[in-house]
Amino acid sequence: MEDNNDHDFFSHKFPTTTQVVEELKELWSMALPITAMNMLVFVRAVVSVLFLGRLGSLELAGGALSIGFTNITGYSVLVGLASGLEPVCSQAFGSKNWDLLSLSLQRMVFILLMAIIPISLLWVNLERIMLFMGQDIGITEMAAVYCFYSLPDLLTNTLLQPLRVFLRSQKVTKPMMYCSLVAVVFHVPLNYLLVVVMGLGVPGVAMASVFTNMNMVVLMAVYVGMFRKKEMKLRWSCGGGGGGGGGVVGGGLGELMKLAVPSCLMICLEWWWYEIVTVMAGYLENPTLAVAATGILIQTTSMMYTVPMALAGCVSARVGNELGAGKPYKAKLAAMVALGCAFVMGFINVTWTVVLRYGWARLFTTDEPVKALVASVMPIMGLCELANCPQTTGCGILRGTARPVIGVNINLGAFYFVGTPVAVGLAFWFRIGFSGLWFGLLSAQVACALSILYVVIVRTDWEAEALKAEKLTKVEMVTYNGSKNKDVVTKEEECKGLLENVNGNKIDIC
Which residues cross the membrane (predicted)? Predict the structure, then answer.
């Protein structure tokens, strides 16, 4: 009797309970390690803030300013661009096109190397930019120091972010969790050595974060290369016909950028909006109180975001794998199961933010007005998460189907044409104050979630998406043989942009 897992089911049939349970197992076997990894990365950030706090209020303020600046101008961009790999890698893995899978990874590393050049210029000029914006001189000087010593982290992330997507698309998630655990365990001693023992201060905190990310990359490469080699496929490319390896990797960058740039904008438009909320809080009647409460609430949302972010990445891989394998209704099943899980997580977040709102605020501060303000807004934040969980998961589904442009349009409209006017109007025009900002976020999340759910559930033709995936990945490739290079012949005209070099020459794979 043939295994049902090897076949798609028919469009006129609903999936059986067994198929749903199997999909749940498949999804969470990937998502749980990624969630643990995200939590560890969150803990690393908290440790850095704690060591900055030990140095003094000026160092803490400068470090916080620098962290916000680097998140907006650097890390969000690199994470977003790397997510453009998700549809290509996951669909290539599903169709067993190992050459396209490996070549896309190399191209993304090249894209990120180009991206960090302007980002580095921004980081080097942080002090001038902040002073131009009227920031405090002392805080700005401290932020500039932290940012300067964080520059090597840009190079590390050009390898770390694409490698995470590359492995996740092949269902290899546990190594990332193990490597993150080991790296974060050493993060505390690193901070202690550099900050306390060596007395390096703010540069020491920045350098510890850089070393921790470097450790993650090295450990991941060693672990996978030594112990999990059979679970992944990686083939390095070299050029033929005198073109050199750069011709192979450089070709098709434009097609990959068409996925990477919208994926980047889809993530950044939401990420940046939270930073805008912090800025707007500074213009309220009691800015110190509002900004302090905002900091606690954003840290809380960051913690809650680790689960839907992991689920979004994994459903993107699952949907892409099944579409690449020519199984549209298994891809649909993966999407629907993930959305169901997202709604469950959303209701859990609503529940605990309402029940534990007073106790939660006490974990962060002893200031009674700040605790009261945080407690009053947490139920609104919980409702935001009720919409954010399916919205984030829906964005992952859109990336898995290679439709990030739709996500960009939805996020732009929801956060900047719905959320921003509502937040500004309620907080300042109707003088509701701090709660008005979070009602603005709620309106944005609801608009975003409804739009994405409509696209995924109502407007998605899964058979058509499978055909698109076939055009993207169905390529005949011959391997490098001895000293002679052979041509790569595409079956579909649409694939040429991904696989040909800039001059229109054919690729050789070795």
Answer: 30-52, 64-85, 105-124, 178-200, 206-227, 290-312, 333-352, 410-430, 436-458
Angle at Cα 308 formed by Cα 302 and Cα 314, nearest 5°? 130
* Cα–Cα distance, 185 to 215 (Å, whole number): 11
Within 10 Å of residue 244's Cβ, how many Cβ atoms?
A: 12
202-227 vs 174-185: helix axis angle to the nearest 10?
140
Say which amino acid occupies 113: L
Q: CA-to-CA distance for 148 and 145, rounded, in angstroms?
A: 5
Residue 475 φ then ψ, to 5°: -130, 135
* pTM over cut 0.90: no
- Distance in angstroms between the alpha carbons of the first and the last residue of the chain: 39
In this predicted model, what pLDDT tens digit does every residue of 441-479 receive, in sequence order?
A: 999 999 999 999 999 999 999 999 988 888 876 643 333
C-alpha–C-alpha distance, residues 251 and 339, integer Å:
36
For position 298, what pLDDT does the model report?
Answer: 83
Summarised one tens digit per residue, pLDDT across range 149-202 is 999 999 999 999 998 998 888 888 888 888 889 999 999 999 999 998 898 988
Q: Do 291 and 65 form a contact (C-beta atoms < 8 A)? A: no
d(CA 392, CA 209): 27
| pLDDT of 508 over the 70 cut | no
Q: Which amino acid, 31?
A: A
In sequence order, what are the beta bridge partners of 476?
Answer: 489
* Integer Cα distance of 302 and 300 in angstroms: 5
Domain ranges of the chain: 14-466
Q: Is 182 helix (H, G, I), strand (E, B) or coil?
A: helix
Look up residue 382 and give its amino acid: G
